[in-house]
Amino acid sequence: MKKTETEMNELLESTLRLSEQAFRELFPILPKEWLSLDLTTPQLKVVLLLHLNGPARMSVIASSLGVSLATATGVVDRLVERGMIVRESDPNDRRVVLCRLSDKGSKLIAGLWQKAGENALVIFRAMDARQLQLVRDALEALLSAGKVAKEHLQIGNNSK
Prior knowledge:
By secondary structure, the protein is mainly α.
């Protein structure tokens, strides 16, 4: 049965409220390691950016953070000093410097994701098979819709 625009808006709003409530309820089980990281927010953003997207030029990092090249360079400098990131020449163009996660940075992120996965497993094990299947189906639907939205957003960004 097709929903009216008003019904869809109400469904969207209630879904957003439920998402916020789930975040608030589940945040306390976030691995303590995430909360005890000795990284500033910009540093964590750079580490996550490099983890998700791979090596990047400083200009890409600055743009992603929404800061100047000088500010991004300062953030990366501190991460290099801490051994989280390494700078290296682009094999295709020696004039270009790429930043990538070091082994230490990769291990940190892998450990954080692993711990988060372990905590998620505890939640999933508290569900019966029907509930778990519903969550799985919802996640598949979310990923599918995310692909469509991502394509739409990329088209919108390119037209600016």
